[in-house]
Amino acid sequence: MFQNQRQIQIEWGDCDPADIVFYPRYFAFFDASTGALFEAMGYSLRDIRGQANQVGFPMIDTRSQFYKPSKYGDIVLIESQITEVGDASFDIKHRLFNDEQLAVVCSEKRVWAGLNEQGELKAQVIPDDIRQRMLA
C-alpha cells in the first residue's frame, strides 16, 4: 500500500523542560505526515476539499508507543504507510526513527468525511481514484 517518508528537525518549541519532545507534538508530526502522504499520492487537502462537499479525513482513533526520546536538534525520519482501506475509512501507520533507531510508532484510523444535505459531517465512500492510489 502507498507509503511516504519525510525528515524533520526537532525544534526548540517541540521540547519540554527536560529537553525531550513533548508527546503531543508527535501527534502533530504524524498529522502533518498524513498530509504529506496524500500530497505524495497527488492529492492535497485543498484538492480533496475542492471535491463536492468533501471535508477531508478526520481522525477517529490514534495510539502511540514511545521507545526512545528525541531532543532539540535531532533530525528524525518519519515513515508513513497506509495499512488498510475500507469503504469509508483507512488506517495509517507512522514509524519515527531517530539515529536509525525506532523511537515512536503511531497508528491512526481516519474516516473519509463530507457534509450531507443538512450540513452535518458524515462518513462517505472514499472516491475510487483516491482508493486506487491508496492501494498502490
Automatic annotation (TrEMBL):
Please give the superkingdom of this protein's source. Bacteria
Q: Which UniProt keywords apply?
A: Hydrolase
Q: Which CDD domains match?
A: 4HBT
Identify the InterPro entries for this entry: 4-hydroxybenzoyl-CoA_TE (IPR050563), HotDog_dom_sf (IPR029069)
Q: What one GO molecular function would you report for this record? A: fatty acyl-CoA hydrolase activity
PANTHER family with a match to the protein in the record: 4-HYDROXYBENZOYL-COA THIOESTERASE FAMILY MEMBER, ACYL-COA THIOESTER HYDROLASE YBGC
Q: What is this protein called?
A: Thioesterase superfamily protein
Q: Which organism is it from?
A: Marinomonas posidonica (strain CECT 7376 / NCIMB 14433 / IVIA-Po-181)
